[in-house]
Structure formats: C-alpha cells, structure tokens
Amino acid sequence: MDFEDEDIFMDIDPKILSEKDRWNKHDHDDLHLENVGMTVKGFECPSKHISKDLQVCANSLIGFVNNVLSPASCAVLNDDSNDYVLLFDFLFEKSTALSNNIYELFNFTFTNIYQLESSLNSQDKCGNSKKINQSILGFFKYMLSYVDNYLKCDPNPQESIVIIWNNFNQLKSSLKPLSLIGSTTLSKQSLCHQQFHVYFNVHLYYLLTCYKLLYVQNEKMNSTQFTQYVSEIHSDRETINVDANSLRNDILLVMIQLTELSLKCFNKISQPEDVYHLSPFKCDCVTQFWFILKLICQKMDPHKSNELFWKNLDIVFGLLENEHQEDIGEDSKTDVPMYITCSKPYLYSIWFLKHLLSLNINSNDELIQSPENLEKFIDNFDCTEKITKKLTNVDNISENELRTILTLLDGIISLKETCKPDIITTLWEYFQKRLNSNFVLKSTPFAYTLSCLNNNRSALEVLTHVEQLISFVRKPKSEENSYTLFLRILGMYLMKYNHEQRLWNQIKGRMYSKFSQSKLSTLTEQGIQHVSNLFILLFYIKGNQELVKIQTFLNIILTMKDISPTTREIVLRTNLTFILINIRNNVSLDARLLSPIMNILNENCDHPNKSNYEQVIKLYLLTVNDVFKESEDLTLGQNLLLGHWMSKILSNTKVSSNVMNIFYNLLSLVLSKLRQYQPIERDSQMGMYFSCILEHVLPHLRTDFNFNIDTMETMTEFLSELTLFTLSGGVNYKSETFQILNMLIVNTNVNFELKMNYVKCLISNEDMHSFSLTTFIPNIEIIITQCYLLSLIVSEHTINDSMGKYVEAHCLQRFRQNYAASLSSQYVQEQVLNSSNEETLKQFLRDINLINASITGTEARTQFHNEVNSLFSIEDTLKHVVVTYDKNNSATGKTIITNVFTCVAIIVDYIGGILYKKSKPNTQLQCYIDTLLLQFQVRNIDFKLSGNTTHALRVSFHIYVNALIKLEPVHDNYIARVIKELIQIYLPRLINKIQYETPFSFNRSFNEVESKDMFLLDMIINLFLRKKCKVSDKNSQECLVFLHELLNEYNNVDFVSRFIKTSLDMLLNNLISLNEVDVCRNKIKTILTKCFTNPTVQTIPAVKNHVLIVLTKLSNENLAFSFGQYFQVLNFLLHSCCPGIVTEFRKNILIQKIKTVEMKRGVGEDKVLRNLMEQLDRNIKKVLLVRS
Q1: Where are the domains of the chain?
Q2: Is 991 helix (H, G, I), strand (E, B) or coil?
Q3: Given this model, what pLDDT does residue 77 score?
Q4: Per-residue confidence (pLDDT) for residue 67, from 0 to 100
C-alpha cells in the first residue's frame, strides 16, 4: 500500500495521544460503550460452498445494506443512545469524532490495513487480523451513522461531504486490485482470506457512504450549487466531483474488478465445456457483492429500475471484447482500463449471465425495509440479445465454444420471464448461412456428431429425439452439436410462447424467407437433413397449421434436378414423422400429408434396382408399424397407409428376409388391432383394412416349396392372425375363412414347414378354443394330426403342448370313442410326462397300438387300419424334407435328416403291422420304404450317399431291419425281398471304412433271437460271398469287415455257434477258391480264428458235427481237383482253429474220401493225395505234441 505524504493526512492530536491510557476501554468498564467493531456487518464467508440461493434477512449483510439504503436507515445505524463511540481502541464523542478527527481516523484505517498486509509475510496470528478487520468495520459503520444522524442536521454540510468523500476515495484508491489478491477459497482462518474481505468491505462501505453523502447533498442543495461551492472553497487542491456520475463510475470500477477476479480462473480453462464445472462467484461474498451493486443501482435511479446495473455490465462485456465505450463518464475514463484480457469474451459473458440470472433471493423477514428491492436479477435491457448478436457476427468461433455458449444460452432463455424473439432470429441468421456444415466437434469423432441427424433412424426414433430435445428435464448430450442446440432453443421458445401468434409470425417470417427455390437448390444432403430437422420440430409444435408451407418447401426439394436417393429418403422420413405426430395428437391423416409419401413409396417399388430400394421400404414399414402401435383409434385414416405397394413387395423375390419379416409383423399387428373391433361389416371403414389385405397380400403370398424359410415365423404369425380375424368375423367372413384354410392346409403344394408352423401357431392361440375348424374342412383334424406328426419328426426342438393336446382331444379320443370305448384313459395320461419329440411320437404310436389291440371285430379293425394309414400318409412331405436338407452341411440339416429316418423307422417298428397288409399293393409301409430307402437311384452301384443320409442310416438301420423281421419275412416274400435289398444296398455303404462319429447300428440287430440271427447271417453270407469265386469284389470285402465286427462285439458261445452254422461252409469254400493274393483270404482266416478262439465252441456237439459235415462236403467237392487248396484249409484249421475236430475228421472221414477218389480214378493209390495226407498226419502229431 502506498501512503501519500500530503497534508490531508495530519498527525494525530497530541491531546488525544497523551490521554490514550486514560481513555482506553479497559480502564473504563463502568461506562456503557458502543462496541461497534463486534456488531457491524461486513463480508464474511460462512463456508467454502458457493450457494445458488441468497438467504436474506435483517441480520444478513444484504438485509443490512438494503435497510441502510432505505430512507429510514437511522434506526439501523444507531444501536443505543450512548454519547461515546469506541474506534480503534480509542474513545470518541459520537457527535464530533468524524468532524474533529477525520484525518486521524482515516490514518488509523490506513495503518490497520497496512498491518494486515504486513502480517501476510509474518507469523502473525489470524486472531489479530480478525480484530483489525472488525476495527475497520466499526469505523465504517460509525461513518454511515454520522452521516445519517449528524450530517443531515448540519445546515452547511458541504465541506464535510467533500472531506469524507475525498478521504474515503483516497483510501479506496490506495488498495490493490481485487484480482491481485490470493485465492478466496482459502480457509476462513487464513490471512489472505481476511485481507480479501477487508478490501471488499472498503469498497462496499465506500459505495454506501458515497450514496448516503449524495442523499444528504440532494436534500440540502442541488448538484450545480454543490459543485460551485466545492470549486470555490477547494480551488487550491485536487478533489473529485461529489455527484451521481462519480458514484456510477465507482460502481463500474468495482464491477470491473469483480469481473477480473472471476477471469483469473476462467482464462485457465483448456476446453470451453470446462465452464460447466466453474462459477464466476469464487465465494458467497462475491455473489452478495454483485447483488449489493444491483441494490445500489436501483436506489440511485428507482424510476429506471435496473437500467444502471445492466448498462454498466454491458460496458464490462464491451471491455472484454476490446470495444471503445462511449457511455463511460469523462471523469472516470482514466481509471477504467482500455480493455480486459479474456480468452473467450462471448463465452465468458454468457457464462456469467447464466450464473447471475440463476441466483435465487429468499427473503421472508418482516424487519426488512423495501422488500420489493430484493428481486432476483432480471435482464430487462437486452444484454443477452446484444451478446448473441455480436457472437453470430464472429466467423472464427469454434464449434466446441459455440456449443457451450448455446447450452448456457438455453438456460438463460428459460430463466427470463419474457424474452424477445431477437435471440431466435439472430441465431437463425447465423445457422441458415451454414446449413451445409457438419458442425463437427473437435473432441468427438465425426460419426457421433451425426447423432443429431436422422440418418438410418426410423421416424419414431426421430420423433422421440425431438421430444427429448425439447424436454424440460433433459440433460445435454456430449455428442450433440450446435445446430441441435439451436433447435432446442427454438423449440423451447416456441413451446413457451405457443399462443403468441405475433411472435410466431415474426420468427416464421424470418425463417421462411430464407427458403427460396434458389436457396434450397444449393443445399447438400447435409443441409437438407438440417432443414428436415427444423421442419419436424416446427410441425411437432405447430401441427397442421404449417403443413402447407412446409410441404411447399419439401416439394421444391423433391423437384430439384439430379436429386439423390438419400435426399428422397430424408424427405420421406420427414413426412412419415409428420404422420406419427398427427396420430399421437389424434389428428386424422389427409391427402396433403399422404400424397407425397405414397408417391415416393410407389416410385421406389416400381424401380427395385435402385440403390436404396430396401432402405426406403424398411423405413416406411417401420413407421407404419409404429403408427399402428401408437394408434388407439383406427378411424383416423390409417387404412390409407396400406395399398397396392404391398403386392409389389410380395412380387419381388429379391427383397431381404429382414424387410419381409417387418412387413409380416406389420400385417399381424394390424389384424390383431382389428380383431378387437369384431364383428366388422365388410363395407365399413374397419372392413377396408381386411379388404386391402385380401386384395393385395393373400393372392401374392409365396406358400409353395420355394418360399423364403427365413420369414417362417413372422409369416405364420400373420397367417394365423388372418385366420383368427376371419373366424372371429363369423358369417361376414365365412367364405374367406374357407379360402384361407384351403389355401394353407388342404393345398398339397404348400411348403411343409410353412403348413406345419402355421397349424402350430394357430392351435397355440387361446382364442382358437372358441372356433370349430371342421365346419369349414371336415377332415381338418387329420391334416392337423399329420402336421403334428411332421413336427415331431422334423423339428429340432420340442413341440409345445398345444398341438399335442389338440391331437389328443380330436384324434386319439375320437379313435377311442369309435373303436375302443371301454379303453381306460390311465395310459393316455403318461404321454404328458414325455418331453422329447421321439418319446412323444412313441407314446402316440403306443396309443394307436393299444386301441388296435382293443378292437375285436374284423371290419372295425380294417376301418381303423385304413384311418391310421391315411393319418400317416406323409411320405411325399418327408421326401421333400430329405431333398431339401440332404445336401445341407449344417448341424440343422444333419439333425433333421437323422430325425426323419429315425422317426419313420420307429413308426414302422411300432405300427408296421397296421401300415402293411400282405399281398396288398402300395401299402403305407411300402410307400415309406420306396420313398426313403429303396429309391431307384440307390440301386445304382455308383450312387453315393450324402453325409447326412449316411449318418441317419447308420443310426436307424437296425430299427428298419428289426421292424421288417417282425413282419415274418419267412412267410412273406415281399418283406424278405425288402430286407435283402436293404442289406445288399446299404451294408457296403454304411460299414466302418472310415472312423464315423457314430457306430453302425446294424450290429444291434444280432445276438437277440436265434432265428433272426440265423436269418440275417445267412442272408448276408449269400448276398456278398459266392462259391468257386477266384477273385472277390468290393462288397465281399465290406461283408467280411462287418462279420468280423460282429464277432468282436458278440463273442459269446451261442452267437458264435450260430455264426459257424450259417457261415462256415461259404467261408471255407471261398478260402479254397480265392487266389492266394486275394485280400479276402486273410480276412476269412481272421474271422475263422475268431470263431474258434473260445475252446468251448469246439466241444459243443452241434458245432463239432456241423464242422465235420462242412469238411466232408468240401472234400466231396474239392478233393479230386483242388486237393492242394483243400489240404491248405485243413492245415489252417488244424493250426489255428479246431485241431481236435480236424484230427477226428482225418481218422474217420478223410481216408475214406481219398480212397473213393482213387477208386474213381482207377490208378490205385494217388501219391500226391497220400503225400498230402502224410504231411497232415505229421502236422497233427506236432500239434498234439505241443498241446500235451
């Protein structure tokens, strides 16, 4: 602090100094003194927290200031009637202290402030600083009291006014600027905190004192007389003008210092959005000071309310922008800086205004005088409008900064009780020049900045975005750009003043004037999108009132030359959003709104090769779907949204499954909504919906085997809804019900999966319980049962209970009633417990067998068999399933093919006796066999089975064989032939040549019943092995591989005995006849060795006798001409298989057979045969020796 050495600062009176101890307050406790320093009001932060609410009461600083500024302020400043006042620990007379000791008292004030500054660099305790602060406040309060109580009574106060004013101004001018004092957020106990608030108090009381002095001056004389007096008396020294202009400029200087204080933090921000977390009021004292400045300005010119305050604030904002200020008083221009350094002046101004206008003033204290002055800040002097206008004239403002400004501006407009349209029109003038811009945020990727646009959004999403945009509880989104925020400001303004037609006329006049044809023709797709967003917002708020004008502009866009497909899509989305808005507002759709939409849609449908063909259709379908979802009343013309375009979509086979699913979902929604209005007359408005679907949809549905399977679920849902609608319509739609059921159920050309899922979906609907389908199609129960069977056979997933319950109630129950009325229902209940499709199918077949077993009459049994055969006439569908999925390499294809073959095998196994009748042609069993197993092509030796069919037959082959054997092939040549063909065709193809993931199930047909084993083994041996064969074929090798697998799996004595009985003759015959190098010889030897591995087998009389018979038979056939090969077989059997049997054969049979050959030859003993026999004898001796 700099003290001036002028004579205005006189030394303290020696008398007073000499009497210091005598007049010290500690020595005169018996006197009643006014302890001003402890009761005076000044700035003191209650906490570090910055409050948005100013609580004002008589004891608060603002309440105190308000009361001081009121005319009746004496009561506030006079605490008692004592004649003495204690100032700076000295006792003074109240009436003369200021007039006699003014220079001493101000000198004390200077000294105390200097001490406070000095203590910042020392270890002084904060308590002493508080004492200094209170002493200074005590003097300031006394000065106000003196002016109010004594100066007013002075008939000639002119000289006192000038002296007080000049001294106080000198004190204030010597202080450092507020912005140079340390942080105000320090603890209350810090010295810097105390210094800061002392400075605040000096400025505050200076302004209050000057105001009171002006008040006294105005009561005594006018300003001209006073100025003349001052110039005469004080012509010899420099003084300031004691007038209102001086005080106004002093207020301005304080406002500048407070602004510079808040700029200390503001200028440090790195990103504009950082201001969201900052406040221009560093503590509550700053907030209070701004409000006190407003109070003083109000008091200075009560007729113009807050004009002075906002005028000064406008000057401050101008200094931020480095503008020349003409409104500053000439006397203070030297004190006011040329400019204030600010990195972002417009952002700061709006940010400051937002916080200033957000302050709330709460005052309910009855002791406060003139409470009408304690109103919150209200910008009635276009300060915001001026800043906005300057802002929009700047070209280089960044998108980040502009976005932040508009976010703050949005809050300001919502706070203003009345707002002129100037802000809106000014912002529009800015953005209409930049409609083609992207408004890219620096901190956000470009892709996210488009979230404010409508690309790839449905109309409902656009509408939802608009609703959220102008919601009062909305939180700003980081990715929204400045144009989106402008739309919010516009929307909020129009919502607030929706009934002010004059304001709307001003705004729309400025807006619509910018949409000339030449202007619209310069717009890019981005610009058109921005205009579209604007139109949607206007239509949302104003509705059909602005439809004609908006449609005019949209039509200009549509008729532009070389319009892009994307632009057409934008216009379509805009119009579709209009429709949604009208539906939500329960407003009917008219031709003005629908015509441009249908024109774009039909044109798009007529040109399916367009690049955005599907996008347009999808957009339209999604919107219409949302329209019906939102519709509570279907009489608003929604039926006009359906029409000829539907048949065009259905006729185009290239439309994606995704779009078609949306289409079918839309139709299902429409029908479900309509069903609530049944019964509906055909010619009514509601009836027009169904007529449109009947005319444009039903004839064009692809229900044949080539339909798109990816639309299965949605299409069947739609068809079931269509059926339920006609059924619920009763006699009004009886013919349509018949037509639909015949087309989808009776028609054999309908895709089996479509029919199956349609029936499933239809039966699953609870509303179906109210209707009887047999009224329309007598045999529909059989068809539904067939669909149920197909579902069990084909479906990958478990079938729901609805179809099972329907079949139980309408098929099985009817069978029981007609053929087995006494049959107990206890058995039937068990099927509910089964879960898998296969188990459910088995339970169904067991039910049929149970009914069949209960029938006693031949005629009834025959009739029942006929009905069951009709029920299972599904071979054509199964054939198509196999053709469809046989080459499908997915897991689904494999599963479905396996299910088909396995389930058909189960059907044949369980009810083969019902499906087949001996000597009857074309039975159902024969149809299954011919369709799935014995097709013409599989008989071709070069035909190769697919992987799916191979897997399915490896799993199910044994079921077919077992089922056919149950039909007694021994007594039925057809069944025997079928089994023979199945084994001949499939065994070589299914045997384990490579490692399959599932074993060949044919093995499971063996080791059960002796007759079946003998039958199958004999058939296999005779099919694949031939006598006198020198070279084996491929099938023989596969047969031997299978036989070896059988022996590996079933090595028990019984099975091996059966195997030897059926196979030994052919195996030994081939062993003799085959060439030495043939691969089958070793395989036969392996099989024979495996047969006799168990020594017990050789001891079984039946086996022993059979081996001897076979060897005898072979000797008769081969001893004369193939004796070498024959003896090789005997030696092999001797060493590897059955030495005991061979030894017995040698002793009892072989010698006789050799003699017989020799006798026939007539040459005596044959040396070769004898030598071979001798060699055999030697081998026998060796074997016996080894065994012994």
Answers
A1: 14-353+364-377, 642-760, 779-869, 1092-1188
A2: coil
A3: 57
A4: 81
